[in-house]
Design a protein that fits this description.
Blueprint lengths: L13 H9 L6 E2 L16 H13 L12 H12 L4 H4 L3 E6 L1 H16 L4 E6 L3 H9 L3 E6 L1 E2 L4 E2 L1 H9 L6 E5 L12 H14 L2 E6 L13 H6 L6 E6 L12 E6 L3 H16 L7 H12 L1 H31 L8 H4 L4 E3 L4 H11 L1 E2 L5 E3 L5 H14 L1
Parallel strand pairs: 1-12, 3-4, 3-7, 7-8, 8-9
Antiparallel strand pairs: 2-10, 5-6, 9-10, 11-13
Bound molecules: (2S)-2-hydroxybutanedioic acid.
Length: 396
């Protein structure tokens, strides 16, 4: 049977990572996959994570299955991180959380839930968006549409075009929003625009689905939840897909969460019963370790403070690299204006490099960038900054 199969294309992001690993050239630079690197070009295990892991090792008594949605305490802590401890959503008991394998797992469960219970619903994705969004919803059988988002000419959010398209979306459709640190553009709506979007989606009867993979990488844990919280008004429904890969550095533990917010406690409970059916038919119940680490850190005042400091340091380093990149390119005599990169948020920016320039960077300079020109700023270091900017100056 398999003999007739053709070769599938490599994944746009993870496939590139494999190519990078196999590249024997010394001094190669990886600005492809969204993974944080420290100044020594390492992806460190956070100290708060190490401490939590040693506690878990000492106290863990069983490897028995978790419940289908994972631990109850994990869910409570995730919801407090999203909305704040005192939020009406928490008081009214109208949110429920499933611990999922990564943010991808959360998106897939959300997609299965939509397909199962709202088969006519399409989901609207930003143009551009994370390369995997279309594949995840497509694999679950959910139709995808796209709304304009980034204006390549002005290097900014095209809010008018975005809202004009969403105004035409049929009631009952879902809209995927990047909670913060838009992947791939690094451009987010401001507080006023978030408020206007919340109003528009409510008015049009559209379901917001947040992909929230970078909380804390933009301006701070609370600041980065501005968009999400603009939607969190009484009676409003939404889905939130969290990832803890980046902000806890737990990439290979696959830890994330799907939070479903209903209009009231009863509706949430009923909707969540269907989410559990989707999970059971998918991966049955979540892997425990990553979730236990997140839970241990968030529940402990000291560990949480340590984690927040480590997160702030990662954020600070990325922002420093953004400014340094802009300065170094200018110092190398590049006349093109790259100042927009210093203003964008999170790990990613659109460099504006075209596919030919991206290819030349890879072939001639062993620098790996996603084909769209997206660069992972978190892969820049003081050491690779010079060679990187020399190479970019050479291909421009
Ligand atoms: C990325 O966009 O590079 C990350 O979210 C990693 C991934 O899974 O693609």
């Amino acid at each position: 049977m398999f003999d007739v199969l053709d070769q599938a294309p490599p994944d746009a992001i993870l496939g590139l990572n494999e190519q990078f690993k196999a590249d024997p050239r010394p001094g190669k630079i990886n600005l492809g996959v969204g993974v944080y690197k420290d100044a020594q070009n390492q992806t460190p295990v956070l100290e708060s994570v190490k401490t939590a892991e040693s506690r878990i090792l000492e106290t863990e008594k069983s490897k028995g299955y978790l419940a289908i949605p994972g631990s109850v305490e994990y869910g409570e802590l995730v919801r407090a991180l999203l909305f704040g401890h005192e939020h009406e959503i928490l008081q009214a008991n109208r949110a429920a959380t499933a611990h999922t394998p990564g943010g991808t797992g959360a998106l897939r469960v959300a997609a299965d839930f939509l397909k199962r219970k709202f088969p006519g619903t399409s989901i609207w994705l930003s143009d551009p968006t994370w390369a995997n969004h279309k594949a995840i919803f497509g694999a679950a059988g959910v139709a995808t549409q796209s709304y304009p988002y980034y204006d390549h000419a002005t290097k900014s959010l095209d809010f008018d075009a975005m809202t004009a398209a969403l105004r035409e979306a049929p009631a009952g459709d879902a809209v995927l929003l990047h909670g913060c640190c838009h992947n791939p553009s690094g451009k987010d709506p401001n507080a006023e625009q978030w408020a206007a979007l919340a109003e528009l989606l409510t008015e049009r009867g559209l379901l917001p689905v947040f992909d929230f993979a970078y909380q804390g990488f933009g301006d701070g844990l609370t600041e980065d939840a501005t968009g999400l919280r603009a939607f969190a008004t009484p009676g409003r429904e939404m889905l939130v897909c969290s990832s803890f890969s980046k902000n806890f550095g737990l990439y290979n533990e696959r830890v994330g969460a799907l939070t479903i917010v209903g209009a009231d406690a009863g509706a949430t409970e009923r909707a969540f019963s269907h989410v559990k059916i989707s999970i059971r038919a998918n991966y049955s119940n979540p892997p425990a370790h990553g979730g236990a680490v997140v839970q241990t850190i968030l529940a402990d005042t000291e560990l949480r403070a340590q984690w927040e400091a480590e997160l702030a340091a990662m954020r600070g380093r990325i922002n420093e690299m953004r400014s340094r990149f802009v300065e170094t390119l200018a110092a190398k005599g590049v006349s093109q204006d790259f100042s927009f990169i210093a203003e964008q948020k999170g790990m990613f920016s659109f460099s504006g490099l075209n596919p030919d320039q991206v290819q030349r960077l890879r072939d001639e300079h062993a620098i790996y960038i996603v084909g769209s020109g997206r660069i992972n700023v978190a892969g820049m270091t003081p050491e690779n900054m010079g060679p990187l900017c020399d190479a970019i100056a050479a291909v421009l």
